[in-house]
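Milestone 3.1: sequence recovery, worked example.
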């Protein structure tokens, strides 16, 4: 195991950690501001479902990247099919894609869903004069965990069975993004 820990891997892990800190901070501040601005309970619940759904979607993408096969994308890239080059990059960088999608985005979504859930519990307690804060919080935490874990369980099955299709769809969207902005999400590594 220690043979895999070299200076490059440690630096990469530190960069990911720093990147995650700033993304989580930015998104957390934004969602907190949104929760304070949003007084409607249904909008807060919709925000919670959206955050959980994004975590599940990115988990599917990360799992599909790890399960995708490179040869079909190489064949499409040779034929200059739009998105195939990006699919090759995603597949060649599967460990990084899986790390960002499953861990970075997944952990941020988990943290944010907990914060939004706590805001919903607080709002429910004020609106309906609930007295049992511990029970309300436990029910919300269980609800969030059930949606997240159940959604990811279904998503992983889909991601493994439809890996190449999912990655190609993501690659086409990535191709559009790169054409629109001129920015590459990650460099092609061998």
């Amino acid at each position: 195991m220690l043979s895999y820990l070299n200076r490059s891997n440690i630096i990469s892990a530190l960069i990911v950690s720093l990147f995650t800190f700033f993304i989580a901070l930015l998104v957390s501040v934004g969602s907190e501001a949104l929760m304070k601005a949003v007084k409607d309970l249904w909008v807060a619940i919709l925000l919670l479902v959206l955050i959980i759904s994004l975590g599940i979607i990115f988990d599917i993408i990360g799992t599909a990247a790890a399960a995708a096969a490179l040869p079909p994308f190489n064949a499409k890239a040779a034929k200059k099919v739009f998105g195939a080059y990006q699919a090759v990059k995603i597949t060649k960088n599967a460990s990084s894609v899986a790390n960002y999608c499953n861990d970075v985005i997944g952990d941020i979504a988990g943290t944010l869903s907990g914060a939004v859930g706590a805001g919903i519990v607080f709002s429910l307690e004020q609106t309906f004069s609930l007295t049992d804060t511990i029970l309300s919080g436990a029910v919300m935490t269980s609800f969030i965990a059930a949606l997240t874990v159940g959604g990811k369980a279904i998503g992983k099955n889909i991601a493994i069975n439809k890996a190449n299709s999912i990655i190609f769809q993501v690659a086409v969207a990535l191709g559009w993004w790169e054409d629109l902005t001129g920015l590459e999400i990650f460099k092609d590594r061998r």
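The chain has one domain: 2-181. The radius of gyration is 20 Å.
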